[in-house]
Amino acid sequence: MSEKSDHADERAYLARVVSELIAVRRARLLSMLVLALAMLVAGIGAAMQAQGTRVDTILLFSAFSLIMIGIVCALGAILAWTRINRDVLDSVASARPARARAPRTRNAGMAVAIGFAVLGLLFGWMLFTATPILAIAIVLACAVLACLGPIWANELSTADDRFAVILDSDDELAKRFSTYTPIWLHEAMENEKAGQDRA
Questions:
Q1: pLDDT tens profile 164-197
Q2: How far apart (Å, rounded) are the C-alpha atoms in residues 178 and 186?
Q3: What is the pTM of this model?
Q4: Which residues contact 85 (CB under 8 A, 6 or more apart)?
Q5: Alpha carbons 139 and 38: distance in angstroms, whole number
Q6: Residue 153: CB partners within 8 Å, gap ≥ 6?
Q7: Cβ(145)–Cβ(66) under 8 Å?
Q8: Distance (Å, rounded) from C-alpha 164 to C-alpha 167?
Q9: I need a surface site. Which of 109, 149, 152, 166 has the fewest CB within 10 A?
Q10: Distance between CA 137 and CA 32 in Å, rounded?
Q11: Structural contact between residues 119 and 104, judged by C-beta atoms closer than 8 angstroms
Q12: Which residues, at least 6 apart from 167, have a Cβ–Cβ distance to it below 8 Å?
């Protein structure tokens, strides 16, 4: 009975780790796309603002930098896309993935979104008189960045349910998962039980 209980606990623990890994992969891909769009919006806004009776070289340089950052984020999204379909069990074979430090609830995600929205409105209000086009671009960019909180919160909060659906639809993966034991799992379980005993 104890062995069956321990096996069930190990499967549940491993399921949480794997489901979070899948969620993090998806959230990273979406985050890179969001960052790329936000940087490109801000960069294009800065470039448009720099064009006038007198070309503002500082704004042009800022626009170039933001657009280059946006392109790098887009390349990061492509890299994240290539990793999203990697075998999740092989990915956790040698070591447990680090726990994501990101909002995990809807309220936490909305708090991040509201923070970006307030920041965008504040900068927009400060810059609107001198550089109205740039101010609007910054407001739009921060509105895009506000999506980051809800994206991570949604992916992490629904990770377990999503992994359960994956197991139901993939018999081969479910069969592998039922007996799969990475080298770190027993030690991680012992550490978790020790932490619960201390608590």
A1: 898 898 888 888 888 888 888 888 777 776 666 5
A2: 15
A3: 0.86
A4: none
A5: 10
A6: 102, 103, 104, 105, 106, 108, 109, 110, 112
A7: no
A8: 5
A9: 166
A10: 19
A11: no
A12: 173, 174, 177
